[in-house]
């Protein structure tokens, strides 16, 4: 930990593991899958010396279960996977959301659907991160675009997860996961770490899911004498199952409102030259970096382009986009899928301004492609139709 | 919290969440007897309720953990052993008991069972085998006897069955046992052995589903069912019945396998400690 302030060459996946340990993660359960395996490998190397536990489970479902089990016991816990494994973990992610057990789930995205392209980049799991598990549930998903940001957002993922008692999904592009960059990491003492709010009050009549002011009930730690019940069944404030409509409404509404209440804590984004932007590019992950370059090139050509790079994808930074898009004539969403986050952007700023740039061939979107679309929008005022996007 | 319990005087109400009564089990269901045996064993071993963590899956078996005044976790279908693996590794100070069923542990959760047996973490796994998916209305399970009627085998079950104990032993469980609910004291003693065992203890409880499975197959009322179960068992080891088909003929009960292997949590913690001292 002592030399973390010196610049180091670090791979994105390794940065995720190093950050997790620095954030206090002391339990990792996983299953090998490309392109995320370096995270497991690094955790296996780091955790024993940190007094933690690494376990390679029998499958993806089991590793998600073990992570939740460890966190129910009070230990900060993480797993990492990629598309096919992310699909398998969904039921237990829903369990963690419903029971409000903190955990961090890393998805290093690869080409899909199905086995897809294990070693090629894609951003095809954005909607799965939001709606992958069944039922109405809260979701936090973060999308870093550089090795340093992988470190920072991994730490933030743990902080948000612990503070809000909810699973946090880290969506890392394969390109970012395997990218090696020279980074200067913060010293351990510089990190602001958030611990879990434990129940400390009277044990008699304790209601583990009672609505507190911040909507995050303190968690009873097993062994502390609360002897509560935890279930994925819809439960009332006592933690026991209920099917009474008013209790169900209250329980689910609080679960969803919990994240709305703390949007300011959750939302994170970067803006580049947005003040006078007539063409607003909304891009995330590695595509956000390409977009930054394209916007700079467009400015050199006299086009007033700007970039909104959401780091928090879910809940989407809605107010920021609404403000920025208000002054723009066009909103361009380049992404490495057939069109996912653009649906959310379109919901917020309307279909009239929307332009898409989609690529799902296993190649990252180049700055030149984005610039080309910006120029087309600036020149004609027409719709962008770039990359492999299907024309109608 | 109650003071140190009087071992000779087991009062089940001291271990139950009485506010949850009446329970949801059907009349004649064997799961209540299994729960009584578990709590009786917990009492006699002297495990404090604060330290007791019960992890259960989905199905009738999964619901009985909720009646216990302890740290209870009702998780996803087939996954209680996976959750318990994380919990036991993270919190070796807790006494982890897994309650699962024949569908939960042998069908959807089969992979977790064999690997939990292999890993040998200290925990006690009770598999309540009632030969059927009761919660969902009586569908065939991996332990439904051949030719028996269920809602998904309207002409009788054609598939062969699992012997859960043989499976657990082969996968490496260091204590394997089976008992019927009729022999409640024997079942209690078997669970006590499980709780005292330093590794992974697997105990199959032959339970009965009178209302759905028994009725469908004309197996009689609950006393008749559990008496016939007892008659199909023999307090014996596999050694003497190895050549016999295990059901409907004699199925051995009692401790069926016992072996000594390092408990995995201890192994991990020793390894981690060596890494920490090596670092200093």
Structure write-up:
The complex is a heterodimer of chains A (392) and B (280). Chain A is of the alpha/beta class. Chain A is built from 13 helices and 17 strands. In chain A, helix 4 links the parallel strand 4 and strand 5. In chain A, helix 3 packs parallel to helix 4. Chain A has 2 domains: 183 residues, Rossmann fold (3-Layer(aba) Sandwich); 119 residues, Rossmann fold. In chain A, the strands form 3 sheets. In chain A, strands 2, 3, 4, 5, 6, 7, 8 and 14 form an 8-stranded mixed sheet that branches. The C terminus of chain A is likely disordered. Chain A is globular and about 70 Å long. Chain B is α/β, with parallel strands linked by helices and 280 residues long. Chain B has one domain: Thiamin diphosphate (ThDP)-binding fold, Pyr/PP domains (Rossmann fold), CATH 3.40.50. In chain B, the strands form 2 sheets. An 8-stranded mixed sheet of chain B has the order 2-1-3-4-8-7-10-9, sandwiched between helices. A two-stranded antiparallel sheet of chain B has the order 5-6. In chain B, a hairpin with a 5-residue loop joins strand 5 and strand 6. Chain B starts with 30 loop residues before the first helix and ends with a helix. In chain B, 53% of the residues are buried. Classes of the chains: A alpha/beta (392), B alpha/beta (280).
Question: Secondary-structure map with pairings?
Answer:
The complex is a heterodimer of chains A (392) and B (280).
Chain A: E1 8-11, H1 12-22, E2 27-30, H2 37-46, E3 53-56, H3 60-72, E4 77-81, H4 83-99, E5 103-111, E6 117-121, H5 126-131, E7 140-142, H6 147-164, E8 167-173, H7 174-177, E9 180-183, E10 229-231, H8 245-261, H9 263-266, E11 269-272, E12 279-282, H10 285-300, E13 305-310, E14 312-314, H11 318-326, E15 330-335, H12 341-349, E16 354-358, H13 367-380, E17 385-387
Parallel strand pairs in A: 2-3, 2-4, 4-5, 5-8, 7-8, 12-13, 12-15, 15-16, 16-17
Antiparallel strand pairs in A: 1-9, 5-6, 7-14, 11-13
Chain B: H1 31-45, E1 52-56, H2 60-63, E2 71-74, H3 80-90, E3 95-101, H4 102-108, H5 110-119, E4 123-129, E5 132-133, E6 139-140, H6 164-171, E7 175-180, H7 184-196, E8 200-206, H8 210-216, H9 222-231, E9 233-235, H10 238-241, E10 251-258, H11 264-279
Parallel strand pairs in B: 1-2, 1-3, 3-4, 4-8, 7-8, 9-10
Antiparallel strand pairs in B: 5-6, 7-10
Helix pairs in contact in B: 1-7, 4-5, 5-6
